[in-house]
Give the backbone structure.
Amino acid sequence: MTTFTKEIHVRAATIEDKTSLLNLEQAVVEAERPFNAQIKTTAHYYDLDDLLINENAQVVVAEHKGTIIATGYVQIRQSKQSLTHSKHGYLGFMYVSPEFRGQALNQSIIQSLMAWAEPKGICDFYLDVYNDNQAAINAYQKLGFEPSLLEMKVNTAK
C-alpha cells in the first residue's frame, strides 16, 4: 500500500470494489471518446470478474476518504513469438479522476503494478494510449515508456 496523505492510499482492488470500478470504466470510455468517435455508446473495456480473481492479473485502486479515485491493472500475457521475452505485463484501466490529477497517482499505481509483476519474472511492460492523448503520453514517458508499435486505422464506410 502506498500512502500519499492521510487521505489517499493505493491498495489492491477486491470484488467488493466492482460497482465503483464499473463506474470508473465508463469514465475511461468517456475520456477516450474524443480520440475515437467509433466507441460504442454502451462500451465495456474490461472483464473485471476475471481481472479481480486471475492469478496473472492485479488490479489496484487509489482511495480518498473511502472513494476510489484512480485505477489500473497489470495482466501477465504471452508475448509475440518474435520477441526475446516470452511474457510481458500489459497495463490497462489507467484512470485518475480529474480533480486528483497532477499528484503522481498514475505513476504510483504503475509502479505498484510493476512491483507486483517483477517477482513473477516480468520486466517488459506495454500499454495502449491514443496518439493524440499527449497528456497521457507525457505521463508514461516520465516512467520510461517509449513509443513502440503504432496502430493505424481507416474507415471506408460512406
